[in-house]
Design a protein that fits this description.
Order of helices and strands: HHHHEHEHEHEEHEHEHEHEEHEEH
Number of helices: 13
Radius of gyration: 25 Å
Largest sheet: 6 strands, parallel
């Protein structure tokens, strides 16, 4: 079997060998049409430029790329800050891209990062669309996945073991007497959406509470879908008495609609969110959460990427999750009693009262 060469790719694409070489090495001095033709030719011929691309990447830029899923999501904003600071400490600057939970926007940013010849990329991938992400690996660009993964692409990852925190959440709600626990799931095209939904299903069965499929609604990790999910759950003939939102932005949407409807969180309905953000503990009532350390995730992602840049093959890292119980999922009777007591203590004395 003959080995496919740069010249073969160039001939199929109808460009010079020099142009094909520049495209496959990530050199930005190429036109969009040339890149498209050469990349398609490389795929058609099953050309694998890993070693060639590494040899051609002879200069460092001291720059890494970070692609997050949604900069509006406080979790990813904190992740971006942590990665940026950890990278600066090691002499790297960070180029940030926002996928906005869209694969096509992700791919556009990844193409730009490739063209800018960054030394490595940390990616929170969108769905299972592998073509552009696979190009990073094929070009020999050091890559690490953070928070999410893409099946079939073998790169180091730093993710969270969601199952422990989710199991403890369902156990906690069941112990308070909740038998119908609504779940606002993330998109099933994303690894975290699938993993958290599977963990919820397992926890429901283990706890022996209702597994009614109508208690599950699917969102998109954005606030509007959290509001829509709560509306759908409360419209059921037998609505849930507790709701678990699979990420912080959907929880924000859930809080907004519950407040708009005049329902008292922690009294009329329990609410728990996956992901802890700083101001969740400052709400009234404070929000119960499944927490995992975004600081650890960002720091470890940078460490893994630097290890890959150095030519090593580090093992993936799985971080723990834990339930933090706050007033939003407290015992409703105890909360009512505490609220009444607080109001009584704060009420000014009136004439004629002892």
């Amino acid at each position: 079997m003959n080995t496919v060469t740069i010249k073969d790719v160039a001939a199929r694409a109808g460009v010079s060998a020099a142009t094909a070489s520049r495209v496959l090495s990530g050199n930005p001095a190429t036109s969009e049409d040339s890149r498209r033709l050469v990349e398609q030719a490389a795929r058609d011929l099953d050309f694998r430029p890993n070693l060639q691309a590494r040899a051609l990447r002879s200069t460092r830029t001291d720059t890494i790329g970070l692609l997050v899923s949604d900069v509006r999501n406080p979790f990813f904003a904190d992740l971006a800050h942590t990665v940026e600071q950890a990278a600066l400490e090691t002499g790297y600057v960070t180029m940030l891209g926002n996928a906005n939970e869209r694969a096509e926007q992700q791919n556009r940013y990844l193409d730009t990062l490739i063209a800018r010849r960054v030394d490595g990329v940390i990616v929170a991938p969108q769905g299972d669309d592998t073509e552009t992400v696979q190009q990073l690996v094929d070009r020999g660009i050091p890559t690490v996945f953070v928070d999410r993964v893409v099946p079939g692409i073998d790169v180091p990852t730093v993710t969270t073991d969601s199952s422990t925190g989710i199991r403890h959440t369902v156990e906690h709600l069941a112990a308070l007497g909740h038998t119908r626990i609504g779940y606002i799931a993330g998109p099933q095209s994303v690894s975290t959406g699938r993993e958290r939904f599977e963990a919820y299903q397992d926890a429901i069965v283990t706890a022996g509470v209702s597994a009614d499929p109508d208690l599950v609604v699917f969102g998109d990790f954005q606030a509007a879908s959290g509001s829509a999910g709560v509306s759908a759950l409360l419209a059921l003939d037998e609505p849930p008495t507790a709701i678990f939102a699979a990420d912080s932005l959907m929880a924000v949407g859930a809080i907004a609609i519950l407040n708009r409807l005049g329902l008292r969180i922690g009294v009329d309905i329990a609410l728990v969110a996956f992901d802890d953000i700083e101001w969740f503990s400052l709400l009234e009532p404070a929000l119960s959460v499944v927490a995992h350390s975004v600081e650890d995730m960002g720091r470890v992602a940078v460490e893994l990427l630097l290890d890959v840049i150095a030519g090593n093959h580090p093992a993936s890292v799985r971080l723990p999750s834990e339930l933090i119980v706050r007033a939003s999922s407290a015992d409703p009777i105890a909360t009512d009693r505490q609220t009444a007591s607080s109001r009584s203590a704060a009420e000014p004395s009136r004439p004629g009262r002892n």
